[in-house]
Amino acid sequence: MTTNASAPPRATGPETGAAVPAGIEPEQLRLLAADGYPLAALRYTARGPVRGHLVMAGATGVPQRFYRPFAEFAAAQGYTTLTLDYRGIGLSKPRTLKGFRMAYLDWAHLDLTAAVDQMASDDVPLFMVGHSFGGHAFGLLPNHDRVARFYTFATGAGWHGWMPPLERVRVLLMWRVIGPLITRWKGYLAWSKLGMGEDLPLNVYRDWKHWCRFPRYFFDDPEMGAEVSRRFDLVRTPIVAANALDDLWAPPASRDAFMAGYRNAPLQQIDIDPRASGLGPIGHMGYFRRKSQPLWQEALAWFQQHPQPAGVHLHAALVAAHGG
């Protein structure tokens, strides 16, 4: 159940370039995953009438502070937004990653699951925005049905064959030469030594490397593909998957290969042309830089199309009647 488009529905509501009010300071939270692991999270409380709650499902090795501009933007438009650091990342990592044991998919099965439970409410709808890994994780959540709509950027299958030739060489060099040398030396993937971002726990690196061997990522893994497909088949949540044409790690073909796993969900795939949009280069990380506010606005506009509980409309009317 897929549709393809070159641009999402046009935004309605607040102006795309609307300034974020000063003073949106997040509340620090400590989430407990089902296995008892503590997770550092930040909650940005909505300004004005609350349109919904939102969970930011980040990319591999990207700390939650990277998503602060987006979280502030969403909160300013009525979405109480939660960001979190997955275990082993940012403020949720132990003193040392050497010897730290976890599975890559703990970030979905345990960490994001705890975030959804924290933010789900009977009073307002819950939405999720994903970045790269966030799109992988959604279909693995045991509580994905609590999310009304899911909008993901830069989600792809990770296979080098979907990448342009030069990027393909670089990625294979990382998997086959640099990664093994660093993990043998440090006991984890010390990406920070290369200026590539957060260090990754050893098993995250190993699982990621293993699944990136396959054109459809873990769906093609003979040991777990059938079970993963079964779980993704349960998803009925409407999804938008948007990828930039200059995203070397997750070009549209890579996205399409992975997102085919959400075969029972209403799915819209969007190709973003950075030149036509006037945003300039986006790549794999530019979706969440401040210049990309028009992309954020499109996502929030799509969320606004979801029917609101009657109580939300009543509250908004009361706020308007009393001058905010």
Keywords:
324 residues; globular; alpha/beta; Rossmann fold; nine-stranded mixed β-sheet
Task: Describe what this molecule looks like in 3D.
By secondary structure, this protein is of the alpha/beta class. It has one domain: Rossmann fold. 32% of the residues lie in helices and 16% in strands. The chain is built from ten helices and nine strands. The protein has a nine-stranded mixed beta sheet. A hairpin with a 5-residue loop joins strand 2 and strand 3 (38-44). The longest helix is centred in the middle third of the chain and has 22 residues, at 165-186. The chain is globular and about 50 Å long.
Q: What would you report as the Rg, rounded to the nearest angstrom?
A: 19 Å
Q: What count of helical segments does DSSP give?
A: 10
CATH superfamily: Alpha/Beta hydrolase fold, catalytic domain
Q: The CATH topology is what?
A: Rossmann fold
Strand proportion, as a percent range, falls in 15-25%
Number of domains: 1
CATH architecture designation: 3-Layer(aba) Sandwich
List low-confidence stretches: 7-18, 313-323
Enumerate the strands of the largest sheet in spatial order, edge to edge or round the barrel: 1-9-8-7-6-4-5-3-2
Oligomeric state of this protein: single chain
Number of strands: 9
Nearest-integer average pLDDT: 90
Shape: globular
Highest CATH level, the class: Alpha Beta
Helix- and strand-based class? alpha/beta
**Fraction in helix:** 25-40%
